[in-house]
Design a protein that fits this description.
six-stranded parallel β-sheet, 3 domains, six-stranded mixed β-sheet, transcription cis-regulatory region binding, LacI/GalR-like_sensor, Rossmann fold, elongated, 434 Repressor (Amino-terminal Domain), alpha/beta, Peripla_BP_I, 46% helix, DNA-binding transcription factor activity
Length: 344
Amino acid sequence: MKRPTIADIARRAGVSKGAVSYALNGQPGVSEATRQRVLTIAEEIGWNPNSAARALSGAAANAIGLALRRPARVLGLEPFYMELISGVEAELATASYGLMLQVVADSEAEIGVYRRWWGERRVDGVLICDLRLDDPRVKALTELELPAVVIGGPDGVDGLANTWNDDGAALAETVEYLAALGHRRLGRVAGLSDLRHTRVRAEAFDQACRRLALTLAVTESTDYSGEQGAQATRRLLSGPDRPTALIYDNDVMAIAGLSVAQEMGLAVPGDVSIVAFDDSPLCRLVHPPLTALTRDIPAHGARAARQLLDVISGAQPPMSQQMTTARLTPRGSTAKPAPTITLR
């Protein structure tokens, strides 16, 4: 089937192609009745503006972009991004905006995607996830003058708008909760070590453990996958002074860790307690259900999208917006540690 064109609209409306162009672009030069007739016909025949023509005219793309640097096998299994995107989409739908999503291999490829999207006027702005230490994307976006909102921060954004959670406070609360239960040996299964929020969590974990004089605090880094989460759990639980409680940087790794503990013959929470960062429905479907740090991820996505739309429109939203700190939701996977039995 031939793609509908401006000429098709002009023929059906009985006007010139120039008049159609004025009507479609909201420019003066045609009556309101003609404008409405042209718009109605365009919708009836399924006409959409050509992206190249839009770029030349400087018209808005009515879309934002999101490039994710995560392995596809991890991205497809991690509830966090599905919930984040659902919140973004819900907000964009109210503004008749679309979302362009692309998975990339590294920061260089991601910056290349931004250059192409912006150069071809495919997007009006972008959302940035997984802020890294000395992140080259921040400088590149500033140089491109591409409207952007960082989902993360507030450090390391160099003037870009951002929306963020206080992960450090959430981690400290978790350590304090486990210490109050009587745990003295804690382990943490962390995500990618070069991410800023991983660093924030690591510092909060270490500081809280020192402040509470915990005798063992060990961190294992992973790629957020269930496979690496399981491997890290096995290492932590195989040592002579195994932790009595483990904190995981996402729910997928926590569920994998639960499975490993049970395979090793350890009772949860009798022998080891487990806490997950991010409370997806998966945390409530396993046995025992997982204690988790609960936050409204769809609301975070919606807030970031709203902030980006404001930046695109030229409004002056608060440049740094803090979301509600994740709250600890205790469930069946945490309890007092089993008493130590001394053999005589």
